[in-house]
Amino acid sequence: MKNYIFLALAILFESVATSFLKASEGFTKPLQTIIFVVAMSASFYLLTHAIKVIPIGIAYAIWSAVGIVLISLIGYFVYKQTLDLPAILGIALIVIGVIVINVFSKSASH
Question: Cα angle at 81 between 101 and 27, to 5 degrees?
């Protein structure tokens, strides 16, 4: 269970980092750039702890899928970016794929 907490925190930090990557405007804003670097470093540090027990492919699939959903929500609410129906369907398929892996795959049971 502790490893999934590490994974959840890694996802959160990665989403913050990606949001600040956008806000850094090509690394031209120092504060936003520093926040990006610190948050991304924290994300990878936490991910290394998660993959001590969770298989790396499974952890990365969860990290990617949840990160995509979170950053899409941040894009919508913070940056006023919208997604069209094909983008939403694609994201939904990614999430469904991760659910299938976690519910049915023997690889996910570690």
Answer: 90
